[in-house]
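User: structure tokens for DUF2975 domain-containing protein, please.
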Amino acid sequence: MRQQQKNQKLATILSLLLKISAIICGTLTFLIIIFQPKTLTTTVQEKQFTGTSFQITLQNQVDDGVSHTTAQMWILTLVLLCSAILIISILWLASQIFHELAVQFSPFQEKYVRKLRQISILLFLYAFVPQLLYSLLSTLLLPGYLFNLGLDSTILFAAIFYLLTEVFRYGVKLQTESDETL
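Assistant: Done. Predicted tokens:
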């Protein structure tokens, strides 16, 4: 019983920290969008592999003599907004899990499996959607084309969360069988 109370207190603290992190992320995103820098510097690297990521970029830049700073700022703003929405959603879902665990510490329930699955899907989306959105908008709004795709540790975290989902699904099955036996 004492261990369960400790777990509930820890879950309350984690829920609060995750909510605060989501709010800070949203606030910083809002501030960055409102107070955008007036100058823009972008660097693009071609094929690169390090121990933690793989990056491939295909591009054809056309210099038509027109400044595209405004279009680039809109592209970066939309990509930032997309990334922030995904991160805030992940943090908020995680805080909901811990909030519910703080009320009743019974981790092997179907609702947690659903939320963990949602987090893993959002992590997969976070790994690809901002990059693809940047490539698409750059190709549509700027002269030339750009395709940028990078694989990094986000894919690993998404896979870990998906595996955790399956472990929890199995735990729910065992819990249900145990409850039916009693």
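User: Anything notable?

Assistant: Helices lie at 2-34, 69-103, 110-141, 153-181.
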